[in-house]
Design goal:
single chain; 431 residues; mainly beta; Porin; 18-stranded antiparallel barrel; 4 helices; 18 strands
Length: 431
């Protein structure tokens, strides 16, 4: 950023000098986009997790490990993003590499998050091909209409995510009247045995589309995904500023033939298939004191009911007791497989409330931004609470300290997580 500021200052100075001599001139070329850009960040993250050895998820994840009451983990990450422009073409790519080590071992991988070509043959017309990260929906913590993207982690919604290989484009037209802008975005997200495996199974073209409207001061999207590797689904979202500092947003999605693996308390595994409806309603408010509040209600139509989750937790506890008595882990392995497939999602149940409040520079402490976030399970009344301290006083450097506190009774969502608490320090340098 300092370089751009110097360019801007120089341009203003030269323009002022020219005006004093004759007339004002503005050098447009000084502000043209560069043909090549490269940026990214390097990150080091230290974590300590206090484990709940009585929780079902601890017993499923650690039954074949030495008993631990706490776990320390160090993670290093490097993410690079670059683009190259030439004529009507732009090539963009993002590569993410990450390695971690704790008492249980080490792991690491490097993945291409994005890598695609964009052509803009005319104003308002774009064609794109390659691996792309799309962000459909208006929600902050969840996106029920995110039909062609990987799900967010509501504990850290702003984390980078890996995209899918796709072919698509968009056409935008500006209008006079109440309907100001119309954008149509068609897509193909092909799946084969080796392409877009995380999207679904089978060989399919997977057509999708989004129609975006700016009607008066309201953003509205209509979204659809045809049947293929995933079942057909359609939905809509909206966002509107009621005042300068108060915004409302929402999403609604209908998923046809949604499948859900079910494990009963006795250990019987079945698959439930039914149409499901998910939706989200939220608000965002900025106070006169620079406090930002985000509040969202999420109804997960594909999630598990309180009784269904209790059956899973009971089975996990029973399977663990059997393992301690007999050494047989067959039932534990079955439950662990389902945990990885569906029960182990960050928010696997049906009704949640998300609240985040952040304050910019309280008491005039420069570059200091505290916040607190909470996710409440409205079915079983368990919750997580995450206070956060963020300091940005060093150029291009972020220091963030977060403390996750989980609370819940026996057989509840957050009460059966493997962690009771987690402390995280993140140091991230941007370049």
């Amino acid at each position: 950023m300092p370089g751009r500021w110097l360019v801007f200052s120089a341009a203003v100075f030269l323009s002022a000098s020219a005006a004093a001599a004759e007339e004002y001139r503005f050098d447009v070329e000084a502000f043209e986009k560069k043909p090549f850009e490269l940026n990214g960040y390097a990150e080091l993250r230290a974590e300590r997790s206090w484990l709940d050895r009585d929780a079902a998820l601890y017993q499923l994840n650690f039954f074949d490990q030495e008993a631990h009451s706490a776990l320390d983990r160090m993670t290093g990450a490097l993410e690079l993003s670059g683009l190259y422009r030439r004529g009507i073409a732009t090539v963009q790519a993002t590569v993410h590499g990450e390695g971690a080590r704790d008492e249980l071992g080490s792991e690491g991988e490097t993945r291409l998050y994005e890598g695609y070509l964009t052509l803009e043959p005319a104003t308002g017309t774009r064609v794109e091909a390659g691996k792309r990260v799309l962000r459909w929906g208006k929600g902050y913590a969840w996106n029920p209409v995110g039909f062609v993207e990987r799900p967010k982690d509501p504990n850290d919604p702003e984390l980078s995510r890996e995209g899918f290989v796709m072919l698509g484009g968009s056409y935008t037209r500006s209008l006079d009247g109440a309907l100001k802008t119309v954008t149509f975005t068609p897509l193909l997200v092909p799946t084969t045995g080796h392409l877009n495996e995380g999207f679904g199974s089978g060989e399919h073209a997977n057509a999708a589309a989004r129609l975006s409207l700016l009607y008066r001061d309201t953003d509205i999207d209509f979204l659809v995904l045809g049947a293929g590797a995933r079942s057909a689904r359609y939905g809509l979202d909206f966002a509107r500023n009621l005042t300068t500092n108060f915004e409302i947003h929402g999403e609604w999605a209908r998923i046809t033939d949604a499948t859900k693996p079910m494990l009963s308390a006795s250990g019987a595994v079945t698959t439930q298939t039914a149409d499901a409806t998910s939706y989200l309603l939220g608000v965002r408010h900025l106070s006169v004191n620079d406090a930002t509040t985000i509040l969202e209600y999420y109804r997960n139509g594909t999630g598990y009911s309180e009784a269904e989750m209790q059956d899973f937790f009971r089975f996990g506890h029973t399977a663990y007791d059997t393992f301690l008595q007999t050494g047989t882990d067959t039932a534990l392995q079955r439950a662990r497989d389902l945990l990885e497939a569906s029960y182990g999602r960050p928010t696997p149940m049906q009704r949640y409330l998300y609240l985040r409040v952040s304050q910019k520079e309280p008491f005039d402490i420069l570059y200091f931004n505290p916040a607190v976030a909470s996710i409440v399970n409205l079915d079983d009344h368990s919750y997580s609470l995450a206070p956060e301290l963020l300091y940005t006083g060093v150029t291009n450097l972020d220091l963030r300290l977060r403390w996750f506190l989980l609370h819940g009774n026996w057989l509840t969502d957050f009460g059966e997580k493997q962690n009771a608490q987690r402390l995280e320090l993140r140091v991230r340098y941007y370049f």
